[in-house]
Specification:
The structure holds two protein chains of two kinds. Chain A is 26% helix and 29% strand. Chain A is an alpha+beta fold. Chain A has two domains: 3-325, Thiolase/Chalcone synthase (Peroxisomal Thiolase, Chain A, domain 1), CATH 3.40.47.10; 332-349 and 384-471, OB fold (Dihydrolipoamide Acetyltransferase, E2P) (Beta Barrel), CATH 2.40.50. Chain A has a nine-stranded mixed beta sheet, with helices on both faces. Chain A is globular and about 70 Å long. The model of chain A has no long low-confidence stretch (mean pLDDT 94). By secondary structure, chain B is α/β, with parallel strands linked by helices. Chain B has 13 helices and twelve strands. Chain B has helices at residues 26-41, 62-68, 84-97, 138-152, 157-176, 189-193, 246-249, 259-272, 277-280, 291-300, 309-315, 331-335, 342-354, and strands at 8-15, 50-54, 75-78, 103-110, 197-200, 202-203, 213-221, 233-242, 283-285, 325-326, 368-377, 380-390. In chain B, the strands form two sheets. Chain B has a ten-stranded mixed beta sheet with strand order 3-2-4-7-1-8-12-11-9-10, sandwiched between helices. Chain B has a two-stranded antiparallel ribbon with strand order 5-6. Chain B is globular, with a radius of gyration of 20 Å. The chains are: A alpha+beta, B alpha/beta. Chains A and B meet through α10, β19, β20, β21 and β22 of A and α4, β5 and α7 of B.
């Protein structure tokens, strides 16, 4: 039976919260850095989910989002390249709905059940902006689930979907911000009406009682309505999965699967998890946790993602990030589609080469070995999952670096296991960068120009180092 | 392999004032530099049999032929980044050494001040493959070497900045004695240390300026040189080494030296028969695009042991009145760096020093001088060395 083999999550380092100038809401919400988008966050979650699982065993990748980088051009393909999957796999972007994440999950389970694929990676990610107060509520983040059969950590016991036509929350093609109709309509005719109806139908259809549910993961537009929903469904407080509104915000289509990742972090064998997502109707799934959860290697997941954080100094800086991300400056154009295509393994998969004659690893790929000068005798070598150390660096004050990113940090990284390459650094405190500091690689956007989104890798201080800061 | 030593003579040179030459085009500056060189050699432009023309900004040989009205003779455009002008001279030397030409012109020019910006510029553009980082500039490449130098030799930031400041102060002092320099003003160590940061740890006074300029040389077969003048200067050795990204591909590369400079110097020293460069060379014009570059070059060229550059700087060894004057004309620090002209500007200073015509900067009886250029960046560069000497 199809189920979940592994899970992963990604929450960006930055938060708006008390301490952020201009922030007038309670609690915190996660916000993507200026070099992140829905695709890069999905890749980070996917990499977390895969851990040391052989990537060549993955038969497909679904990317669920309401905020894809392109209107036409598959992002799942780029995500698959960045996670170093095979090419004979199925890929699809599942978009346009807050239910995209659970839709992708159901589609993946069905694909596996149909025998089309053995293992499918479901990624879900959102970076939404809304107008006015709505924006206070929207957080950025991603989750990933590996769906397959065999040693699953949770089985999918039952599912139910309800389709409901309603303009409650929406965003037009080309528009930047999410809009909504008036609150009373949105909640009373939408969320608060449709979800109980769907849950009721699900229970009737399956003959299951909510009493057997150990954790109920309820999508909620905000904290107040989430509480209301738990009340309507008459769930005991300990049955309700923490929605993290005060730490994360509503992460759109990724929200329910991020909560699922958090639930799995604490789950015990035999637990029943009810997953409820909402948007143009509702998706409901019942999952049962198996003994295999005990064998699963720890993931970076939700808890540590939440603990590794830094509070942005001002709302203005955050607004500048988003403005910059949407600006598509001509000055940063000049990318060539044919060059990117030729070098896609080096760019998206961060593949260098290893010389089969002398063993020297090198980046970018060479035709003639830098060490032994043997021609064309290499195998691909991935640097994306390698840790490294800063060999040297400089802080750049150039006027063309976006003000919020000044000084930029440019590094030369020596990788453990060999190889050296040049990278910009991200998610660092520039003053704390040192020769010899540990870094890891992160897939980021380098800005767009002429309508082309440029993606590449940057190095960043190890995420553990942020946990240590939190502990101080 | 044969040596170029004593086969080629420089019999005339010209050099414009370097600076913001708003009223001069590249063509105007070439006319000025070439005219001075011809007059110095006692020839006319029509006596030139072939020319090698160094520039990075002008795309063809034609502007040189047009400016100087070099009617229907071979003119070759040469480009090798910061070594461009020295490359014009090097190839001109080989043209003569081949026996095909007797009297040739090597000329370099760059008109940078028409591009509308103060620095060489930063490159921000996703570039062809979309992976170019924001704010890439020459400064950051050399700043990376500076960071490494500090760390490798365990110098504190304060100690290190003071050493770099001393280099800057020295070169600005020399430039203050040179009417052809762009900047002719002394600066203080405090000014240099406290200047705004360009690319940490390098500040404004660690970087050279941007200017316009042109310089030219008339070369001939050494056995003909006496027909032109008595105090001609001989080419003793030429070296060029180009990196293959070893510093970026090989983690054992230390990033506190520039192998291309070491290799180019070795080629030139071997040709010139130089065994102990510190003792034998009287003065050197080296590529101080940044102060850290000069510090490392003095080690790369064997003027001092590895890691001892700071000590030599503190002792004043490389000052105008020191044991080995480095950048006696003020260097790139004072002249700026019109890329295609700089190498010949350096050779101009050595040439004048050999002839005893360097005015307030004149060293006592120099017999051997060196010029050095470094293009691209530490880790993978273009190292170029020329050695010039008095006639016997």
């Amino acid at each position: 039976m199809a189920g979940i083999l592994s899970y992963g999550a990604y929450i960006p380092l930055r938060r708006l919260g008390p301490g952020t100038q201009g922030w007038n809401a309670t609690g915190e919400k996660s916000v993507a850095n200026w070099d992140e988008d829905s695709l890069t966050m999905a890749v980070a979650a996917a990499i977390d989910c895969l851990g040391d699982i052989d990537r060549k065993t993955v038969d497909g990748l679904y990317f669920a989002t309401t905020t894809p980088p392109y209107g036409e051009k598959l992002a799942a393909t780029t995500a698959a390249w960045a996670t170093d999957l095979r090419t004979d796999i199925v890929t699809a972007d599942i978009t346009d709905s807050l239910r995209a994440g659970t839709a992708a999950l159901r589609m993946a389970a069905d694909t596996v059940a149909a025998g089309t694929a053995k293992r499918l990676l479901v990624t879900t990610s959102d970076l939404r902006t809304g107008s006015g107060n709505m924006n206070n509520n929207l957080g950025d983040g991603a989750a990933a689930l590996l769906i397959g059969d065999g040693d699953v950590i949770a089985t999918i016991e039952a599912g139910y979907s309800l389709n409901n036509e309603l303009l409650d929350v929406w965003r037009s093609s080309g528009a930047g911000n999410v809009r909504s109709w008036e609150d009373r309509f949105v909640f009373e005719q939408g969320y608060l009406k449709v979800v109980p109806q769907a849950v009721k139908s699900f229970l009737e259809k399956t003959g299951i009682s909510l009493n057997v549910v150990n954790k109920a993961i309820l999508y909620g537009p905000d904290l107040r309505r989430h509480r209301q929903m738990a009340g309507i469904l008459e769930l005991k407080p300990e049955q309700v999965q923490d929605p993290l509104f005060d730490k994360l915000g509503n992460t759109g289509n990724a929200f329910s699967l991020m909560m699922l990742a958090a639930a799995l972090e604490d789950a015990r064998p035999g637990d029943n998890i009810l997953l409820v997502s909402y948007g143009d109707g509702a998706d409901i799934l019942l999952l049962k946790v198996t003994d295999k959860i005990k064998d699963m290697k720890e993931r970076w997941g939700i808890k540590r993602s939440l603990a590794a954080k830094t509070i942005l100094p001002s709302i203005g800086e955050y607004n500048a990030y988003r403005e910059f991300a949407n600006s598509d400056p001509e000055g940063f154009g000049g990318s060539s589609a044919s060059v990117i295509a030729r070098e896609r393994d080096a760019i998206y998969s961060l593949h260098g080469v290893k010389c089969l004659t002398c063993g020297t690893v090198q980046y970018p790929p060479q035709r003639i070995c830098t060490n032994c000068h043997t021609k064309d005798n290499f195998e691909p070598y991935s640097f994306a999952d390698k840790k490294g150390r800063v060999f040297t660096y400089t802080l750049k004050y150039g006027g063309d670096i976006p003000p919020f990113a000044r000084p930029g940090v440019d590094t030369m990284v020596d990788f453990k296991g060999g190889g050296r390459a040049l990278f910009g650094m991200t998610d660092m405190i520039a003053d704390e960068v040192k020769v010899g500091m540990d870094v890891e690689m992160s897939f980021r956007t380098l800005g767009s120009g002429g309508g082309i989104h440029n993606y590449f890798w940057r190095c960043m201080p190890s995420r553990e180092s942020w946990l240590a800061k939190e502990a101080k | 392999m044969d040596s170029i030593k004593d086969k080629i003579a420089i019999v005339g040179m010209g050099c414009t004032k370097f600076g913001e030459n708003w009223d001069k085009s590249a063509e105007d500056m070439m006319v000025d530099a070439a005219s001075e060189a011809c007059e110095d050699a006692g020839i006319e432009l029509k006596d030139i049999q072939a020319a090698w023309f160094g520039t990075t900004r002008l795309g063809t040989a034609e502007p040189c032929a047009t400016a100087l009205k070099l009617d229907y003779i071979p003119v070759t455009r040469v480009e090798n980044l910061c070594a461009t002008a020295t490359e014009a001279l090097r190839n001109a030397c080989f043209g003569i050494a081949s026996g095909v030409y007797n009297v040739v012109l090597a000329i370099g020019v760059e008109k940078l001040k028409d591009q509308g910006m103060g620095g060489l510029g930063t490159v921000s553009g996703a570039g062809g493959n979309g992976t170019l980082e924001w704010g890439m500039s020459a400064a950051m490449f050399f700043a990376r070497m500076a960071t490494r130098y500090m760390n490798h030799y365990r110098l504190s930031y304060e100690e290190f900045k003071q050493i770099l400041a001393k280099i800057s102060v020295k070169n600005h002092h020399n430039g203050s004695l040179n009417p052809r320099a762009h900047f002719q003003r002394e600066i203080t160590e405090e000014q240099a240390i406290n200047a705004p940061m360009v690319s940490w740890p390098l500040g404004l006074y660690d970087a050279c300026g941007v200017s316009d300029g042109s310089a030219a040389a008339i070369l001939c077969r050494a056995d003909m040189a006496k027909n032109f003048r008595d105090d001609y200067v001989l080419v003793k050795g030429l070296g060029l080494a180009v990196g293959a990204r070893q510093g970026y591909l090989q983690p054992d590369y230390d990033m506190v030296h520039m192998e291309e400079s070491v290799r180019a110097a070795k080629q030139a020293y071997d040709m010139a028969g130089i065994k102990d460069p510190f003792k034998e060379i009287d003065l050197a014009e080296v590529h101080d695009c940044f102060t850290i570059t000069e510090l490392v070059i003095t080690e790369d060229l064997g003027f001092c042991p590895r890691g001892k550059g700071p000590e030599y700087v503190k002792n004043g060894t490389f000052k105008l009145d020191g044991e080995l004057a480095v950048n006696p004309d003020g260097g790139l620090k004072s002249f700026g760096h019109p890329i295609g002209a700089s190498g010949l500007r350096m050779i101009y200073e050595i040439y004048k020093q050999m002839q005893g015509k360097a005015g307030p900067r004149q060293r006592k009886n120099p017999s051997l001088g060196l010029t050095h250029n470094f293009g691209l960046n530490p880790g993978s560069g273009i190292g170029s060395v020329a050695i010039l000497g008095q006639r016997d």
